[in-house]
Specification:
By secondary structure, the protein is an alpha/beta fold. The protein is built from seven helices and eight strands.
């Protein structure tokens, strides 16, 4: 009996050990699954936090992009010449006894067949749009090709508008078909009419020609200082004539007739105006 009881005790203990082991196994498997689930959940939370941080950083970068300052200046654009001539003569400058032709027809394209006044208006209207998009107020001396205007009248339009600068759009011509390049024209330091405007007019001319040639890649013929231009002499504000290129040069004329090159001219002039007013 004692022996049987002992075997029963051993068997009972063995059963308890097996049962305990089984329970222990079951209890250990559950936490493993829960840890794995927790690890996945933590990883997901980390990814969500990282994505949120990236979005915040991107938003911060977007917020850090500086806004372009709004331009407060008024620009007078004068597309040179016209399809209708007014004729007659007018004083070279205020109070001058020297008389010059009030207006002339300009040159024409050796390849494109365009009249200069047509090209000038094409570029002038595009330049108006570009400057307005940059925030400038723009005054046009003409918007069509059938407006007769003298050089004095063009300057007076800019003066009466209290514009901050006058940019006169022209194209060049020469007896030599090989002549090429762009230039700007302003008054001299000894101008007999408004010498106090020389520094500003020269600065405007430098900024425009350098940026125009940089964008277009054309030859830079610099700034021509002269007091022989009626429109510049009558201007009470800084002014410049932009000679975009030679229409008598077959290659340059063909280029200036294209939208792509005109857009480059416009960008270059606009960049020059921006630089002059301190926006670049």
């Amino acid at each position: 009996m004692i022996g049987m009881k002992r075997w029963k005790v051993i068997l009972t203990a063995a059963v308890l050990v097996i049962a305990a082991t089984a329970c222990s196994s079951e209890k250990e498997e559950e936490p493993v699954k829960k840890v794995a689930d927790l690890e996945i959940q933590i990883d997901n939370e980390k990814e969500t936090e990282q994505e949120a941080e990236q979005e915040t950083e991107q938003e911060g970068e977007a917020e850090q992009v500086p806004e372009q300052p709004r331009r407060t200046q008024t620009i007078a654009l004068d597309p040179g010449h016209s399809g209708v001539l007014k004729g007659g003569k007018e004083p070279l400058g205020p109070g001058s006894s020297e008389m010059k032709a009030a207006d002339v027809s300009g040159t024409s394209g050796s390849t494109s067949g365009l009249a200069e006044y047509e090209l000038n208006l094409m570029v002038g209207l595009k330049l108006r749009t570009e400057l307005q998009e940059r925030g400038y107020t723009v005054i046009m001396t003409r918007e069509t090709n059938d407006v007769p205007l003298t050089n004095v009248e063009r300057a007076e339009i800019a003066n009466n508008a209290s514009a901050d600068a006058m940019v006169r759009i022209h194209a060049n011509g020469s007896e030599s078909s090989s002549a090429k390049g762009a230039m700007t024209i302003c008054i001299t330091s000894g101008n007999p009419f408004y010498p106090e405007l020389y520094q500003q007019s020269r600065g405007l001319s430098d900024c425009i020609i350098n940026n125009l040639c940089e964008v277009t890649g054309c030859e830079n013929d610099g700034v021509w200082e002269t007091d022989s231009m009626t429109g510049n002499n009558w201007s009470k504000i800084p002014s410049t004539i932009v000679e975009m290129g030679y229409m008598t040069n077959p290659e340059e004329d063909a280029l200036m007739a294209t939208d792509d090159y005109q857009d480059k001219i416009v960008k270059g002039i606009a960049n020059g105006i921006d630089q002059y007013f301190g926006y670049r």
